[in-house]
Every structure is written in C-alpha cells, then in structure tokens.
Design brief:
The complex is a heterodimer of chains A (115) and B (111).
Chain A (H helix, E strand, L loop, with lengths): L4 E3 L2 E4 L5 E6 L6 E8 L3 E9 L2 E5 L6 E5 L5 E5 L8 E8 L10 E2 L3 E5 L1
Parallel strand pairs in A: 2-11
Antiparallel strand pairs in A: 1-3, 3-8, 4-5, 4-9, 5-6, 7-8, 9-10, 9-11
Chain B lengths: L4 E3 L2 E5 L4 E6 L7 E6 L6 E6 L5 E4 L2 E5 L5 E6 L8 E8 L6 E3 L3 E6 L1
The chains are: A mainly beta (115), B mainly beta (111).
C-alpha cells in the first residue's frame, strides 16, 4: 500500500510570509501527527489530529496551526515565518494514535527554508 | 520537563564491529521506541519496548529497556554499511499528550 506522502518536498520562503504544508496519510489511518526536526532541537512534536479534531498540541507558538479533512488528509500552516522556522517538517500517520503505542509511519518530510 | 538524552551523538565504525547506543532519562517512561532515519527520509520504527527489563531482538539489533524504565540501549552486532543512519529513541510524556524524542545518534559504518 502507498506510504505517507508530503507535498511539497522543498520550499523556500522569506521572513514574514506564510506557508501551508500537506500530508496524505496511509489509507485507513485516521491519526496524523506533525513534527519539526532541526539540527539543534531534534524532533519536536507539533500536534496530533484524529477524525478532524486536534487531539494534542506541543509547545509551539500560535503561528503554527493545522487541520484535518474528512478524508484524513492534513495540512499545517505557519504564519509570519521566522528564520528559526527553517526545518524539516514531518508528518506521521497511524490507525488510532502514535502517542498511545500505535505504530506511526512517517512521510519523507517537507524541507522548509526561510530566508 | 521530560528529556531523553542519547549518547554518543556520533559514531563512526568499520564494518563488522559491534556497538551500543544509549537513551537515558531521569523520568520514567511507560514505553520507549527506537527509530532509524536515513537521509532524505522520515524515521522508521524499529521496535517498541514496554516492560522494564525487556529485551527484544531484531536480527543483529538487540534492544533493552531498563528495569526502572528510565533508560534503553540498542546494541548492533557485526555492523554493516546498511546500518548507517540516525538512531532516535522516543517515548510518550507522562500525560500521554506528546511524543518526546532524543536528539539521536548518527551512525556511520564504512566498509
């Protein structure tokens, strides 16, 4: 079966702009989680969606937001981009919840560069 | 704040050598997971350990969860170039609302 897909794979933006990233989970998976990966901080949890509802949220400012559609596809949005937002953004899907022991399958990520 | 500290940060070895990487915390975790991430890809789950003292084997990889569930180790026997990658440990926070990752161990195995 097809894996988790993320679009776009690479993105370059300038400070102050906003960006929307997309994630298509594995068919049948209802949970989507988003993570930010940087060399300095490693992988950090952003939020988790299940059945179109945000179930959990990490310690990130309100500029980071997301949503999930009825087909389980998810988008995350970052407004008023800052240089420090440059990172690899990963999404992961699972049947119920990657936070409760369910296996998470990660996509290849979107590499965001903020200039 | 729960933290997972991984050591060493970098490891460069020759094919055929054995190695161990560590994942430590001052907090108790209900479970710990180990992932491997290769360049340009997302992490791939290798194993989940749940019971204190548990040992799991995956071919040449042996995973151990500490008795107190505060630490874990990954031992690779006879490393191969295909083992090259970033090894990450992760566990749920106490509230079960977020997955905490260590910063990882970058392993390079040369032939």
């Amino acid at each position: 079966k097809a894996g988790v897909t993320q679009t776009p794979r690479y993105l370059i933006k300038t400070r102050g702009q906003q960006v929307t990233l997309s994630c298509s989970p594995i068919s049948g998976h209802r949970s989507v989680s988003w993570y930010q990966q940087t060399p300095g901080q490693g992988l950090q949890f952003l939020f988790e969606y299940f059945s179109e509802t945000q179930r959990n949220k990490g310690n990130f400012p309100g500029r980071f937001s997301g949503r999930q559609f009825s087909n389980s596809r998810s988008e995350m949005n970052v407004s008023t981009l800052e240089l420090g937002d440059s990172a690899l953004y990963l999404c992961a899907s699972s049947f119920t919840s990657g936070l409760r022991g369910d296996t998470q399958y990660f996509g290849p990520g979107t590499r965001l560069t903020v200039l | 704040t729960q933290l997972l500290e991984q050591s060493p940060q970098f490891l460069s070895i020759q094919e055929g050598e054995n190695l161990t990487v560590y994942c430590n915390s001052s907090s108790v975790f209900s479970s710990l997971q180990w992932y491997r991430q290769e360049p340009g890809e997302g992490p791939v789950l290798l194993v989940t350990v749940v019971t204190g003292g548990e040992v799991k084997k995956l071919k040449r990889l042996t995973f151990q969860f500490g008795d107190a569930r505060k630490d874990s180790s990954l031992h690779i026997t006879a490393a191969q170039p295909g083992d090259t990658g970033l090894y990450l440990c992760a566990g749920p926070n106490q509230a079960g609302t977020a997955l905490i990752f260590g910063k990882g161990t970058t392993l390079s195995v040369s032939s």
